[in-house]
């Protein structure tokens, strides 16, 4: 029955799902956000350093130094994470333009321009006579007023994760306008002798005019606050994602697709990642402000407490094959996959065991991540472990990655180890049955050959 079901899935859904995962707009979102990961990782680690004095004895000179300079240490973090959407929009625009065989740099600039025009600069009014008179009697207030900037400023909150959905839509709009002008020939074409860079600049004039006039009319002249509108629309979605049932559904879908050899992360995680980034940014902002992070359902939670060793928590299975297998194939598989699994690379296990379309291993492959997620969620909700506040490099061994992702919380490393042990225990009966089957097949083959 399982074979019949798997054939139906493979025949009816594998093709469309594969096309969905490679859909140009979804792929552009994935590529653009993934391109920002080095910025997120490095800048977030600075935040961990800035508050590491809490993990040290107060008498240490290093603790005193970090505490005294925490604000300065956090400045690079604010200039990277706080404007994260700017970087993502550039990457999304570049990827989408390249998928249309357009100039990637021009597409990225069109995307960035469209996004920035959704943000209405705030005018800082001149100081009135009454305030000036008051300030003259208060030296501190007077000094503060003298430091206020003049002219216009850009609201920083719209440049961070809060503006991510507007950023994604803006990148699509900007590149599609650029593509429309190119396909329809609505552009200024220069002679062949003109250098390519100059020619591209003139070709971009038409979409630039359309974008500037169109977006300015909507946001600045008609006064439509698109950020507030979209923020109100997605708020229920963001809140719903940060729940245990939603997290379990996401995990199940990822594992379900993997069961048939379809990269579940490329479909499900690509859609959920913008929301995860919003929640994660709120956690990091809370910690940076000296508050407590409250959002559990973020991507690092899945990375370090659910998909330990890769999707399906297969590090536990790799440990069993490496140290408990009796079949020759199982021993070889274990020795081959244990090291990649420690660094969260599990394709050799998924396709080597194989787990894909293997009913004996698919049950624990789907169920164990759900169990680990529930345990880790309860532990985090009970404040036994801090919420994740940063994205640690995904190739780190589990305990180290969990420690860093949770802001230097040693309890996160302990929880990670406990969950690895639990995965070994839960995988064991299924591993034993499968290894026994492999051993019998090997003996039967030896008997025939002998």
From TrEMBL:
Its main location: membrane. It comes from the Bacteria. Pfam families: PTS_EIIC (PF02378). The chain crosses the membrane at residues 33-53, 79-97, 104-124, 159-181, 202-224, 244-263, 275-298, 304-323, 355-377, 383-406, 413-431. It is found in: Cell membrane. It is a multi-pass membrane protein. This is Permease IIC component. The lineage of its organism: Bacteria, Bacillati, Bacillota, Erysipelotrichia, Erysipelotrichales.
